[in-house]
Structure formats: C-alpha cells, structure tokens
Amino acid sequence: NDTRLETWECFSAGIARTRQIQSYKQFKKDHIAKVERHFKIEWRFL
Q1: Structure confidence by residue, pLDDT tens digits, 1-46
Q2: CA 41 vs CA 5, 22, 35, 37: distances in Å
Q3: Distance of alpha carbon 31 from alpha carbon 15, whole angstroms
Q4: What span, in angstroms and rounded, lies between the C-alpha atoms of 32 and 11?
Q5: Closest to 38 (Cα-Cα) out of 7, 11, 46, 13
Q6: CA-CA distance, 5 to 34, in Å (whole number)?
Q7: Is 9 buried (19+), middle (13-18) or exposed (0-12) by CB count in 10 A?
Q8: Kindly report the CA angle at 26 between 10 and 24, in degrees rounded to 5?
C-alpha cells in the first residue's frame, strides 16, 4: 500500500498552499505600503 506516498503528497500540497498564502500576504503588505507611500507623495503635492 502506498499510504506513505499519499500522506507525503498531501503534506507537500499543504506546504505549497501555506507558502502561497504567505507570499500572497507579503505581496499584499508590500502593495499596501507602496500605495500608502504613493498617496503620501500625492498629498505633499496637493
């Protein structure tokens, strides 16, 4: 029986999903920071 292989596949899929979520959160954080910086510059010129 290849239950070990199935377990490993589930495990690596879970890790991949977690990494995806983490990088998405980081991307969102960077994006929000960029937008905030942009608006600060805009406000300065207004």
Answers
A1: 678 989 999 999 999 999 999 999 999 999 999 999 988 877 776 6
A2: 54, 29, 10, 6
A3: 24
A4: 32
A5: 46
A6: 43
A7: exposed
A8: 45
Token pair for residue 3? 């239950």
Helix (H, G, I), strand (E, B) or coil at 43: helix
What is the value of pTM for the model shown? Answer: 0.58
Residue type, position 18, single letter = T
Q: Give 12-42 as a 3 state SS string.
A: HHHHHHHHHHHHHHHHHHHHHHHHHHHHHHH
Rounded Cα distance between 3 and 5, Å, is 5
